[in-house]
Amino acid sequence: MTTTHPSPGSGGTGPGPGGPAVDVRGLRKSYGAKRAVDGIDLRVERGEIFAVLGPNGAGKTTTVEILEGFRHRDAGEVRVLGEDPQTAGRAWRSRLGVVLQDSRDQAELTVAELVRHFATFYPRPRDPDEVIDAVGLREKARTRTRQLSGGQRRRLDVALGIVGRPELLFLDEPTTGFDPQARRSFWALVRSLREDGTTILLTTHYLDEAAHLADRAAVVRAGRVVALDAPDRLGGPAARRPVVRWLDGGVRRSERTDSPTALVASLAARLAGPDGEVPGLEVARPTLEDVYLELIGEPAAGAGPAPAAPTRPAPTDARTPDGPRAVVPEEARP
Amino acid sequence: MTAAPTVRAPRAAALPGTGRLGVERTRAELRAFFRERDAVIFIFTYPLIMLAIFATVFDGQDQGTGDYSVPFAQYFLPGMIATGVMLTSFQSLAISIAVERDDGSLKRLRATPLPAAAYFYGKVGLVLATSVVQTALLLALAAVVYDVPMPWDMPDAAGRLATFAWVFVLGCAAGAVCGVAFSSLPRSGRSATAVITPVVLVLQFISGVFFAFFALPTWMQTVASVFPLKWMAQGMRSVFLPEQAAALEPSGSWQHGATAAVLVAWLVVGLVVGARTFRWRRRDDG
């Protein structure tokens, strides 16, 4: 619905570098009577960071675990790096990186031991020490996993996910439980991976995460994609129509309009006091959160957009390689 | 290890071989195992303590009939060796795999190109290494403290060691595959110990480990004959007891053929059930 498939006949093989990293059409999966995924279409292009946004239980993890080959679908077409995850083998797995939702395993080995061990599984692994540096765990390299903090643990998960030099990295709710500082540096790490040419599919229920990282985001609700666009364009122009609020004889009024300037001008002509001001005037643009809440059907959405929403930095502007440095520079994919 | 950074290596770079990965897994398994101090101590010292307690309490009470008997420690050692093998193979794998399934280790490995076979080779390596250490400790304790004669000092040393080798290897193998199969039974990692320990304990009591097998009621002997521990213990007795002690067995002989048959049968059953029931994810995980 929201994606376009220019050549419907090509959906067979062809993992060539030109094809999309992920191509999903009509995906369905039920658990008993519950339709966890109810007809999802997605297309993730090579080299992009794609976010799947949605509340808990919307079907994000089910979808991603089908793409990772953990679950079997009931219906639909799925191609991940050109192959069907249900039948793909080791060679396909060696091109993927998977960071699962929660992890408390492998407690007795140290960070360095684990990263080195996992590197042996892959045909062309990254240098384990460089990976440990890249995720900022150099000081913890000789620490046993069970002694790591939550944020460090998550960084180790990412290290294990990228040590095989994946073309496509899945991050399932990677920053849940992070403090703001840890989240910022984690974002920088994810962006540096993309600069190395890694395609990233990220699920999250944090809007700011999608806004900061994603080139495009799909909002999933009750197993369906309800919007798909760049985070700052989600929901289309109508969802971002500004709201003008003012006081008319002490009564609060508001109006959504595409021409706020004209409205303000007419209000000024009609209601301005001796000082030339319209009482209680404010013009607000719905925040991403307002748009998102409206998309997932939360009634709070239209009620009160935050005043004077600051325009968020477009995600494409936020790719400065601050924070951890790039792992191993590679030529960017076309 | 890494290719030159700016040049993209051909996609066809070969996947690492399963054998090499099996060695890597064995190394990781052993490293993790020996770091878990409590488990190491429990698994290794339990048979040692049991041997020490029983051999001390029943010191001087020879096991046998009026016609023939052997010193208690000598009769008891083979059963403890069999028990030790069951602990390091069956119990250790059943619990550790249940825990690894529960905590997500298995799922994480499943997301990598690691072949399933290499994971199991790692478990086999762990079982073999820990079983060898376990048995060596038991032999050392029995020989040094309780003066139990070792098979290499007894008549037909070569035959005894050969018997020891095949009973040990078959016992480890059957125990390991049954442990893999059994690991799917506990619903969570936390319940694994509670589910598996009673099975192990009951088998020990009815299989002639804590009590002389010939002294058990016939029906108990019959029940025990279905399970591998009784046969492992009997096979080990044929290694550590004098030839005349075969007369103490209910059948009057060591029954090597039956021992091999039962152990192989459990090996096959464990393989089939294990292969059919093995899961990489928790039951509640879709």
UniProtKB/TrEMBL annotation, chain A:
Q: Which Pfam families match?
A: ABC_tran
Compartments annotated for it: namely: Cell membrane
Which one GO biological process term can you cite for this protein? response to antibiotic
The molecular function terms in GO held by this entry are: ATP binding; ATP hydrolysis activity
Please state every residue range assigned to the domain named ABC transporter. 22-247
UniProt keywords (A-Z) are:
Antibiotic resistance, ATP-binding, Cell membrane, Membrane, Nucleotide-binding, Translocase, Transport
Membrane topology, from the record? Peripheral membrane protein
Major location (coarse): membrane
Residue span of region Disordered: 1-25, 299-334
One GO cellular component term: plasma membrane
Q: Which InterPro entries match?
A: AAA+_ATPase, ABC_transporter-like_ATP-bd, ABC_transporter-like_CS, ABC_transporter_ATP-binding, P-loop_NTPase
Entry's family note: Belongs to the ABC transporter superfamily.
Q: What is the name of the protein in this document?
A: ATP-binding cassette domain-containing protein
Q: What is the lineage of its organism?
A: Bacteria, Bacillati, Actinomycetota, Actinomycetes, Micrococcales
TrEMBL record, chain B:
The Gene Ontology CC terms held by the record are: ATP-binding cassette (ABC) transporter complex
Q: InterPro entries, from UniProt?
A: ABC2_TM (IPR013525), ABC2_TM_bact-type (IPR047817), ABC_2_transport (IPR000412), Nod_factor_ABC_transporter (IPR051784)
User: TM segments?
Assistant: 39-58, 78-99, 120-144, 164-182, 194-216, 258-278
Q: Specify where it is mainly localized.
A: membrane
Its keywords, alphabetically, are: Antibiotic resistance, Cell membrane, Membrane, Transmembrane, Transmembrane helix, Transport
The question of whether Transmembrane is a record keyword is answered with yes
* Residue stretches making up the ABC transmembrane type-2 domain: 38-281
Q: Which Pfam families match?
A: ABC2_membrane (PF01061)
Entry membrane topology = Multi-pass membrane protein
| Cellular localization per UniProt | Cell membrane; Membrane
Gene Ontology MF term list:
ABC-type transporter activity
Query: What processes does the entry annotate via GO biological process terms?
Result: response to antibiotic
Hey, which family's this protein in? Belongs to the ABC-2 integral membrane protein family.
Task: List the protein's name.
Answer: Transport permease protein
Please report the organism this UniProt entry assigns to the protein. Answer: Cellulosimicrobium composti
